[in-house]
Amino acid sequence: MDERRWSGSGTADAGPSIPPPESFVSRANMREDPREEFDEEWPGCWERAAELLSWETEYDTVLEDDEAPFYRWFDGGKLNAAANCLDRHLEGGAKNRAALRWEGKRGESRTYTYRELAVEVEECAAALSGLGVVEDDVVTLYLPMIPELPVAMLACARIGAPHSVVFAGLSADALSTRIEAANSEYLVTCDGYYRRGDAFNQKGKVDNAVLSVGHDVRATVVVDRLGEDLPHHLGDDQYDYHDLLAAHAGESVEPVARDSRDDLFVMYTSGTTGEPKGVVHATGGYLSYVAWTARAVLDVEPGDTYWCAADIGWITGHSYIVYGPLALGTTTLLYEGTPDYPDRDRLWEIVERNAVDVFYTAPTAVRAFMKWGAEYPESHDLSSLRLLGTVGEPIDPRTWKWYYRHVGGGNCPVVDTWWQTETGGMMLTTLPGVDEMKPGAAGPPLPGIDARVVDPDGEAVDPGEAGSLTIRRPWPGMARTLYGGDDAFVEEYWSRFSDPAAGDWVYDSGDAARVDPDGYVTVLGRTDDVIDVSGRRLSTAELESAIVATEGVAEAAVVAGDGIYAYVSPEQGVDPSRGLPEVIGTNVDDAIGPVARPDRIVFTPDLPKTRSGKIMRRLLGAIARGEDLGDTSALRNPEIVGELRETIGEE
Ligand code: WT7
Hints:
The chain is of the alpha/beta class. Helices cover about 30% and strands about 20% of the residues. The strands form eight sheets. It has an eight-stranded mixed β-sheet with strand order 12-11-8-6-7-14-15-23, sandwiched between helices. Strand 26 and strand 27 form a beta hairpin. Bound molecules: 5'-O-[(S)-butoxy(hydroxy)phosphoryl]adenosine (WT7). 5'-O-[(S)-butoxy(hydroxy)phosphoryl]adenosine binds near residues 417 and 421.
């Protein structure tokens, strides 16, 4: 019996290939397949990525592997990420080009030219320095999708202080865990933000979180997002963002020349243990890689208006809202709201008004658009679009085709990009001006990337067979380590398929996948205790412990279905209909945040278990997704499966 659990919603086999539209190919950034050249020149091929940046000091070598798997890219080089994203675009004609277009929740919009953004970033950098932030201090940023978030990120980068962005929807508990784990003494946050129409108090969460941090938080900067709608009080060591910047108006701050290997940021993500892991990205390799992939895959050009509808609180936003697009000097759009407020055509109205060229989102969003109906995109002029992308989870062929036809009008390639927080940037996807597309498969590995699907012994599996998705050669965007956890880094990603004695290091992605005879990879989901829902990665252990902490709950198992499914068995004599789901929801909100709230809670007297007492999440996942259950002979209590199927079918 295969004990591996593939909890993602694997897609059906990829359909026939679709060639990229000629109108796109004729003007694509990349029109010829560089894969062969990359393989011949590897690792020297990655100079092409480094060349997209401006270096303060040229690097000595492309790749140093003497401390593998702690690889060093562009070693000896010095650069500053903020200078690459801003200063160098100010020379020549670009200073008055829009860098950032912000679309607020209340219909507000704000545009920053490259010059305006650079000025605010320098003021913010001066303010942070003034508060005592020095190079290598970790600054926590707990902000929603407002311009002050990228400003603060770039201000940190300018002074060489790694940022740790915590998604604004995470709870006070989650915030304090991350502040503490990163030993961060500085925080930038806001008074609150609008949720649908209502003012939501963020600062209350922050004050609670800071109280429970074990070390001293020296300064908290508060952006006043809500004004009169939510008056707030500034306590000791708390400063108003706009007052601080005004005090540093017009100041210039020299960008700190960082070693290529120096940290740019930490991003906490879910791991197998339930403890969040601080994935650390180094400056030179990461920035080169996100710039290169944004150019090659998203086809971003300086004159474009580019929109990635993710949140900056996740890696997608770091790489492809902020660093990649700004390094290339394009206009990046920042959207604060939700896709269906005030109405279900909100995104298409924004695309039309801003003449967006490239649009990148998550499959779950596309599934929602599809459910709402084609009349919403069709009621707007979307002819400015030339390329569409998805990221975060598998996209099934039906949804892919709907996106291609109803959003792209059949004229835009769709790139299904597979990557992870740890990979820094895209790894598997078609090159939109080069490769044919197969709906349902992410695509082949990018140039220079050696991805293989292997069996438990590390041997490549035959086409069509499922196995573990591994990467054999290092790549510039790869994480440098886990914050404060070099051993955990090796253990978590490099232990399963590597042979350190032979100097043979293999990266284990934790995903299961299948390759077709043309080398196109379909990603099936996680092999470990992590679930992906809407491009958010959550640890089942963390979620389950939040649920089990609820009085009246005996046991819980969480899987990915159409959203997050929680199977909960109540304690003897407890009637779950008496408010239990609400309490579970609140506990999850408090422990992790509303993003982790189960979409569906299924009560059951028992969970399906193996004879050794292990909960069979694989089965629970199949039940949630209405899939074939396969072999259930290992179960101690097979009857429960039928009961669960019935319960779910009835609801
Ligand atoms: C996990 C990484 C990469 C930024 C967003 C999530 C899943 C990601 C795809 C895709 C199938 C995908 C994987 C991966 N995933 N992209 N195109 N097809 N699955 O970053 O939170 O680090 O999650 O998301 O399971 O391991 P993350």
